[in-house]
Design a protein that fits this description.
With 312 residues, the protein is mainly alpha-helical. Helices cover 76% and strands 0% of the residues. The protein is flat, with a radius of gyration of 21 Å.
C-alpha cells in the first residue's frame, strides 16, 4: 500500500477554482468601458472612411489590451488590494485566482491584442497599444505606484492614450486632435483620482501606497486638485477657439468646466467633517460625468455631420 505524502501534495502549484465571472472581473470592466468609449471617440472623429471590420477589430483590440493591463495590475498588486476595503473583493486577494494565473492571463491577452492590431490594422496602432500596456503595467504599476505621490499624474498618461491609439488605427498617422483628447484625459486624471484618494486615504495609508493625501496631507491635496482643475478646464475649452472642435463642444465644455471649477473650489474650502466628505464625493462623481459628456458631445457632432448630407 502506498503512503500519501501530504506535504508533497501541499507543495504542488495550486490551481484555482475561478469561474468566468472572476476572469471578467480581472479585466476591470468599468475601467474598460471608459477606455472603449474614449477610443470610440478618437476613432470616429478621425478623417476618412474605415471599413466596419477594421473599426470593430481596432476597438476590440484596444479593449482587450486595456483588460490585459488590468489583469496584470491585479496580479502585481494583490498584496495592496487585500489591505484596502475598495479592492479586497477582487478575484486575486479573495483567492479565486492566483497571481500567476492572473499575470499569465494578462500576458496572453496583451500579446494577441497587440499582434492582431499590428497585423490586421497597422503597425503604428499596434506599437502604441504595446507602449500603453507597458506604461501602465511596468512604469505605473510596478514602478510609480509604490514609489511617488505623483504616481497618478505620470501614470495617467496610460489612461489617456486609448483615443490616440484609436486615431492611429483609423488613419495610420498622428494629428493634433487625438493629442488634445490625450491632454484632456491626462489633466482630468489627477483631480478625479485625488478626490477618490481624499475619502479613501485610510485605505491607501493602510496599504502603504504613497497617494498625495497620505504623503502631503489633505490640504495640499485640495490645493493640487484646484490647480489641476483650472488647467483641465482651460485645456478642454482650448480646442474650440483653436478651430479643432465645433461651437457645440465649446459651449458644453464651458458649462461643464464651470461645474468642475465650482466643485473643486468647494473641495478646497470645505476641510472638516461631513461637508468635506460630501464635497470630495460630489467632485469624484461629477468628474466622471464631465469626461463622459465632453467625449459624448464630440461623438454626437460626428453623427450629426454624417447625417446632414442624408437629409440636406
Amino acid at each position: 500500500m502506498s503512503v500519501v505524502d501530504h506535504n508533497a501534495i501541499d507543495a504542488l502549484p495550486r490551481i484555482s477554482d475561478a469561474e468566468v465571472g472572476d476572469y471578467i472581473a480581472l479585466l476591470k470592466p468599468r475601467v474598460m468601458s471608459l477606455v472603449i468609449f474614449t477610443a470610440l471617440v478618437g476613432f470616429f472623429i478621425a478623417p476618412g472612411h474605415v471599413h466596419p471590420v477594421i473599426a470593430f477589430t481596432s476597438i476590440l483590440c484596444i479593449a482587450v489590451g486595456a483588460g490585459a493591463s488590468g489583469a496584470m495590475n491585479m496580479a502585481y498588486e494583490a498584496d495592496i488590494d487585500a489591505l484596502m476595503s475598495r479592492t479586497a473583493n477582487r478575484p486575486v486577494p479573495r483567492g479565486r485566482i492566483t497571481s500567476g494565473e492572473a499575470m499569465a492571463f494578462g500576458l496572453i491577452l496583451s500579446f494577441f491584442s497587440v499582434l492582431t492590431l499590428g497585423i490586421l490594422v497597422n503597425l503604428l496602432a499596434g506599437a502604441l497599444l504595446a507602449f500603453t500596456i507597458f506604461f501602465y503595467v511596468v512604469i505605473y504599476t510596478m514602478g510609480l505606484k509604490r514609489w511617488t505621490a505623483q504616481n497618478i499624474v505620470i501614470g495617467g498618461a496610460a489612461g489617456a492614450l486609448p483615443p490616440v491609439v484609436a486615431w492611429a488605427a483609423a488613419t495610420g498617422s498622428m494629428s493634433m486632435e487625438p493629442l488634445l483628447l490625450f491632454l484632456i484625459i491626462f489633466f482630468w486624471t489627477p483631480p478625479h483620482f485625488w478626490a477618490l484618494a481624499l475619502f479613501r486615504s485610510d485605505d491607501y495609508a493602510r496599504a502603504g501606497v504613497p497617494m498625495l493625501p497620505v504623503v502631503a496631507g489633505p490640504d495640499a491635496t485640495r490645493l493640487q486638485i484646484l490647480l489641476y482643475t483650472v488647467v483641465l478646464v482651460a485645456v478642454a475649452v482650448a480646442p474650440w477657439p483653436l478651430g479643432y472642435f465645433d461651437a457645440v463642444y465649446g459651449v458644453v465644455s464651458l458649462v461643464l468646466g464651470a461645474g468642475m471649477m465650482w466643485l473643486a473650489i468647494e473641495v478646497y474650502r470645505r476641510r472638516e467633517g461631513k461637508p468635506a466628505a460630501r464635497a470630495t464625493r460630489r467632485l469624484f462623481a461629477f468628474s466622471i460625468l464631465y469626461l463622459f459628456a465632453l467625449f459624448a458631445t464630440l461623438l454626437l457632432e460626428v453623427v450629426v455631420r454624417a447625417a446632414v448630407p442624408l437629409f440636406g
